[in-house]
Backbone:
C-alpha cells in the first residue's frame, strides 16, 4: 500500500499548494454552467415573445436577455465563490457589490462578443442559435479576467487592526515551499 499513500500524499501537497485554484475551477464550472443554462432558458422562454411584442431587432433582445441573466448569475456566482472557492470572511453584500465591479467590464466584453457573433452568424444559424454560440464563446473569454479580479479585489478582506499580514505578502520576503 505504499503507492496509495504516496499518491494520497502527493494529492494533498498539490491541494495544499493550489487548493484555492482547484476550488475556483470547480466553482467556475458550476457558475459557468448555471449562467449559460439560465441564459439559454431565458432565450427559449422570452426571445420570440419579446421580439413580437416590441418589434426590436433579435440582437437587441438577446443582449437584453444576456444582461438580465448576468444580473442574477453574479449573485449566485459570488455566493459560491465566497463560501467554497475563496472561503472569505467578509460581508456577503459588500462582496456582491464588488463582484459587480469586477464583472461589469467582463460583461461589456461579453456583450461585444455576443453582438459580433450574432452579426456574423444570424444568416447561418438564426437569432437563437447565434445567440447561444456567441454567449458560450463570451463565457470562456471572460473567465480568467474574473478570477484575477475576484482574487485581488472582491474577496480580499482588509486586515483587522493589529492583525499581521501573511508572510508572503510582506515586502522583501519570499515564500518557501517544502
Residues:
Amino acid at each position: 500500500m505504499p503507492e496509495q499513500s504516496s499518491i494520497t500524499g502527493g494529492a494533498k501537497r498539490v491541494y495544499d499548494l493550489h487548493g484555492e485554484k482547484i476550488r475556483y475551477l470547480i466553482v467556475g464550472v458550476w457558475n459557468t454552467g448555471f449562467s449559460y443554462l439560465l441564459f439559454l432558458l431565458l432565450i427559449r422562454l422570452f426571445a420570440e415573445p419579446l421580439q413580437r411584442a416590441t418589434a426590436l431587432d433579435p440582437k437587441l433582445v438577446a443582449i437584453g436577455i444576456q444582461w438580465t441573466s448576468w444580473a442574477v448569475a453574479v449573485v449566485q456566482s459570488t455566493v459560491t465563490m465566497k463560501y467554497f472557492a475563496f472561503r472569505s470572511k467578509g460581508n456577503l453584500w459588500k462582496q456582491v457589490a464588488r463582484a459587480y465591479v469586477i464583472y461589469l467590464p467582463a460583461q461589456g466584453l461579453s456583450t461585444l462578443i455576443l453582438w459580433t457573433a450574432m452579426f456574423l452568424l444570424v444568416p447561418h444559424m438564426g437569432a437563437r442559435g447565434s445567440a447561444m454560440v456567441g454567449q458560450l464563446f463570451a463565457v470562456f473569454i471572460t473567465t480568467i479576467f474574473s478570477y484575477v479580479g475576484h482574487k485581488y479585489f472582491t474577496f480580499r478582506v482588509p486586515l483587522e487592526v493589529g492583525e499581521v499580514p501573511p508572510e508572503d505578502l510582506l515586502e522583501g520576503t519570499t515564500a518557501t515551499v517544502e
Observations:
- The mean pLDDT is 84.
